[in-house]
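Changelog note: in this version the structure field was regenerated for every chain. One regenerated record is shown below for reference.
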Amino acid sequence: MELIFSLGIGVLVACGIYLVLRERTFSVILGITLLSYAVNVLIFVGGRLMIGAAPLMLPGRTVHADPLPQALVLTAIVIGFGMTAYVVALALRAKEESGTDHVDTVEPEEGPR
């Protein structure tokens, strides 16, 4: 089970880094979102996933799920969604004003003549 989660996190991180290094704004936003998903899964897996564990500490049960990583991931999902919406709006505004979708909107200068 750990191998599957490790490979999944690795694929998310690799795809996120690849997209962040692209030159289009939408690809960069998608890459940052994938990286945040990878961090969320990493935090969630760090809480020791258990099958059949009670979500709360009940009388007579010694094994229960750790609620802290679940709460952190839930909070990170909400904050990440809000930030993604803000960055998409910001990117659309930048595209409208500059007329291009490139991250670096400055035209390259010509060399000496």
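Spot check on this record: Residues 2-47+66-98 form one domain. The first helix runs from residue 2 to 20.
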